[in-house]
């Protein structure tokens, strides 16, 4: 494929249909483990059905405590679904700068700097081809996503994968990674400390039914969640 991650990522994203679901469209790093025990993930969702588009960075420290930084309030970002599993959810300025066709930098104010270079493997090319051909209706079927999950884990070498399930706050989710690239090189610093080389965690991390990959993966796609109900679902802010 001749399209670069940058050219695809910069195309304006529109929301998929589904008025009875909460929907997001964009791109991000599904997850990136470091041999030091740190873990990072990133979401850029310019299209959101629950508010303004936003960026978010997820960080897990070696002790297993998660913090999500978002450019909008926790109630309108990833913490809406994952807040109960977090140590904290903070609003911060987040910038994304593409430095080449397959390279970009994510910064969280003066706290975090994360440089990434993307590549393509036979497995990501095959799954991207499948994602482009699969009818939209099949992407909404949990049985189809379950089958794709079982194939994707071994094919991509990322450990266990679940593209549907229940988030920590109680809402069901469907993840639609339509296009994939590998993270070939990654370096990050938090509060001036280098996180060290990439490498799988001793035990694969998960938040609810959402398993974080054991190698860096960049995706373009959509995510769907059950509509928030304060009577049944936990709050976005940890401990509230």
List keywords for this structure.
14 strands; twelve-stranded mixed beta sheet; about 240 residues; alpha+beta; 5 helices
Task: Chart the SSEs and their pairings.
Elements: H1 5-9, E1 21-33, E2 39-48, E3 54-60, E4 66-70, H2 79-82, E5 88-91, E6 94-100, E7 103-108, E8 112-119, H3 122-133, H4 136-139, H5 142-156, E9 164-166, E10 172-190, E11 193-194, E12 206-207, E13 210-211, E14 217-226
Parallel strand pairs: 4-5
Antiparallel strand pairs: 1-2, 1-14, 2-3, 3-4, 6-7, 7-8, 8-10, 9-10, 10-11, 10-14, 12-13
Question: How do you describe this structure in short?
Answer:
The chain is an alpha+beta fold and 240 residues long. It has helices at residues 5-9, 79-82, 122-133, 136-139, 142-156; strands at 21-33, 39-48, 54-60, 66-70, 88-91, 94-100, 103-108, 112-119, 164-166, 172-190, 193-194, 206-207, 210-211, 217-226. Helix content is 17%, strand content 41%.
Structure description:
The structure is a single chain. The strands form two sheets. Strands 1, 2, 3, 4, 5, 6, 7, 8, 9, 10, 11 and 14 form a twelve-stranded mixed sheet that branches. The protein has a two-stranded antiparallel ribbon with strand order 12-13. The model has no long low-confidence stretch (mean pLDDT 94). The relative contact order is 0.22. The chain is globular, with a radius of gyration of 16 Å. 17% of the residues lie in helices and 41% in strands. The chain is built from five helices and 14 strands. The chain has helices at residues 5-9, 79-82, 122-133, 136-139, 142-156; strands at 21-33, 39-48, 54-60, 66-70, 88-91, 94-100, 103-108, 112-119, 164-166, 172-190, 193-194, 206-207, 210-211, 217-226. The longest helix has 15 residues, at 142-156. It is α+β, with helices and mostly antiparallel strands and 240 residues long.
């Amino acid at each position: 494929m001749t399209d670069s991650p940058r050219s695809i990522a910069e195309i304006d994203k529109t929301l998929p249909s589904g008025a009875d679901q909460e929907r997001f469209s964009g791109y991000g790093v599904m997850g990136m483990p470091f041999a030091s025990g740190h873990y990072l993930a990133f979401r850029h969702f310019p299209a959101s059905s629950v508010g303004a588009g936003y960026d978010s960075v997820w960080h897990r420290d070696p002790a297993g405590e998660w913090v999500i930084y978002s450019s909008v309030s926790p109630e309108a970002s990833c913490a809406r679904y994952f807040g109960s599993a977090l140590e904290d959810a903070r609003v911060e300025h987040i910038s994304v700068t593409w430095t080449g066709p397959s390279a970009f930098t994510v910064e969280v104010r003066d706290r975090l700097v994360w440089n990434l270079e993307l590549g393509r493997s036979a497995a990501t090319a095959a799954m991207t081809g499948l994602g482009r051909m699969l009818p939209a209706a099949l992407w909404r079927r949990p049985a189809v996503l379950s089958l794709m999950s079982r194939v994707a884990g071994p094919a991509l070498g990322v450990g266990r994968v679940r593209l549907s399930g229940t988030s920590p706050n109680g809402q069901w989710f469907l993840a639609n990674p339509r296009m994939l690239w590998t993270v070939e090189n990654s370096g990050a610093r938090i509060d001036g400390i280098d996180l060290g080389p990439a490498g799988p965690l001793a035990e694969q991390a998960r938040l609810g039914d959402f398993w974080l990959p054991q190698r860096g993966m960049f995706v373009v796609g959509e995510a769907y969640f059950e509509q928030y109900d304060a009577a049944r679902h936990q709050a976005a802010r940890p401990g509230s």
